[in-house]
Amino acid sequence: MDITTEAATVLVVDDEGAIRYSVSKTLQRIGYQVDEAASGEDALDMISKREYDVILTDIRMPGLTGVDLLKRIKDISSDAIVILMTGYASLGTAVESLRLGAHDYLIKPSSSQDIRQSVARGVDRARNLKRRRSLLDAIRSNVFELARSDVDKLAAVFEENEPAPMPESRYEPTPIASMGEPVTGNMTLGPLTIYPGRYQISVGDQPIDLTPTEFDLLLYLAAHRGRVVSCHELVREVRGYAVDEAEAREVIRPHVSNLRRKLKQTGKDADLIVNVRGIGYRLSETGQ
User: Fold this and answer.
1) Do residues 40 and 61 touch, judged by C-beta distance below 8 A?
2) Long-range CB contacts (< 8 A, 24+ apart) of 170-178?
3) Considering the entire predicted model, what is its pTM?
4) Average pLDDT, stretch 231-236?
5) C-alpha distances in angstroms, 33 versus 7, 8, 28, 117, 178?
6) Is-contact 103 78, C-beta < 8 A?
7) Angle CA 281–287–288, to nearest 5
8) Which of 18-27, 120-129, 232-241 has the least mean pLDDT?
9) Per-residue pLDDT for 192 more than 90?
10) Could you give the C-alpha distances from 75 to 68, 100, 181, 241, in angstroms and in order?
11) Using CA atoms, how far apart are residues 206 and 265, in angstroms rounded to an integer?
12) N or C: which end of the chain has fewer CB within 10 A?
């Protein structure tokens, strides 16, 4: 099922049963799939068996505290969305929680509206990260297939007793870590170097900072290069909601315009992204 339509999964962690029940019902009423854990230890066991979009946990619990649970979860998945709740608020605890990668920090008792809004923002963030991972995986798969195809073609023109030269790799396994994103490798795609997790690309030695939407738009076009992608599809897959084609064109056009402007500032032909009138956009094959 598409991640934009599948019901989000939430884990509520609190040693007080009444609070677990209240928070769970608040979220279930608006369509979330909610599980409950009475301790940090139980939560870790449940997380090992099921992936959750958002984990909402109390801070003060016997045994494994909410902050300890946050650290353990981040060791397992650096982009997990964790919201902390506490009835004993302090600036120091809030700052430490956010430093450790908490998505949000709620003061108990929290209103149903505050809980719903915080979880909704967390779900949006989780699904944006999933979309980005999916795009990166598709690009890596395409790059691998292209490289393997090049090797096969080169091998065919050499005698069996002569080794075929290996083409230059289009994947650079240079580890980077930025802003809490998972460590991964830079990727070279045509004239562009893509830095996953940074919202940044470069043309030659010139870095280009992109907004999250511009970055995801470029990734999606790269993952689907070789075909024209409709504006409706771009909005659905990059922004996470569905609109008709006419409205989608209005949504996507300014992002493409900004991308072209940023590319042009580096001296790169701004037509790397080609507008196929009446249909959508594609990544130019000439720049590959």
Assistant:
1) yes
2) 170/143, 170/146, 171/140, 171/143, 171/144, 171/147
3) 0.53
4) 86
5) 6, 6, 6, 16, 31
6) no
7) 100
8) 232-241
9) no
10) 11, 11, 12, 31
11) 10
12) N
- Phi, psi (5° rounding) for residue 251? -70, -45
In what helix (H) or strand (E) does residue 150 lie, and over which residues does it extend?
A: helix 112-156
Residue 20: both structure tokens together: 């677990």
Q: How far apart are CA 257 and CA 236, in angstroms?
A: 19
CA 127/CA 154 separation, integer angstroms: 41
Residue 258: its H or E element: helix 245-265
Please check the confidence at residue 127 and state whether its pLDDT lies above 80.
yes
pLDDT beyond 80 at 4: no
* The token pair that represents 218 in the structure block: 């470029």
User: Is beta strand 9-13 parallel, antiparallel or unpaired with respect to 54-58?
Assistant: parallel
CA–CA distance, 117 with 123 (Å, rounded to integer): 10
Give me the domains of the chain, ranges plus CATH numbers. Answer: 9-126 (3.40.50.2300), 170-287 (1.10.10.10)
**pLDDT score, position 218:** 84
Whole-number Å distance between alpha carbons of 278 and 1: 29
Beta bridge partners of 58: 85
Main-chain dihedrals φ then ψ at residue 246, nearest 5 degrees: -65, -45
Strand ranges, E, within 44-143: 54-58, 81-86, 104-107
**pLDDT given for residue 56 in this prediction:** 95
